[in-house]
Prior knowledge:
This protein is of the alpha+beta class. Helices cover 29% and strands 30% of the residues.
Amino acid sequence: MTIxxxxxxxxxxxxxxxxxxxxxxxxxxxxxxxxxxxxxEAPGIGLAGIQIGVARRILxxxxxxxxxxxxxxxIINPQIVKFSDDASVYEEGCLSIPDYYAEVERxxxxxxxHVGRDGKEHVLxxxxxxxxxxxxxxxxxxxxxxxxxxxxLKREMVIKKxxxxxxxxxx
Length: 171
Ligand code: ZN
């Protein structure tokens, strides 16, 4: 397993739409392991392939708290097939937008079909934090960031801040 460098805002890769994975082979399993390792190291509770520069439709999630046994989820080619009518609000953050948090309203529950690391089709019914996390990570596969769900003014401020920081590093 290898810890990979994270892609940070405003890198245009984060706006790229990721491509489906055709079959779960050894390369895909290695990618999943690297993503989990990178996520645990950060630490974070979710990571999409594009956040380590791989534009493929794969994400990993683990909501276990520190000190609890790990519960890694590997989700390939996810599709949200059902959204609940009721919404919930969570304060979200993102490993690609470090140290920035904002409240985002999303459907409170979702049903997601996907392929697992066993290569088989699965259906996941999620609510609470898992539902929010799944929607956040699936957004990444479509080039969408959680800051796209906040006010335009706040979004422009955070993009400006990260653009300035990236320029500072380049000099
Ligand atoms: Zn994110």
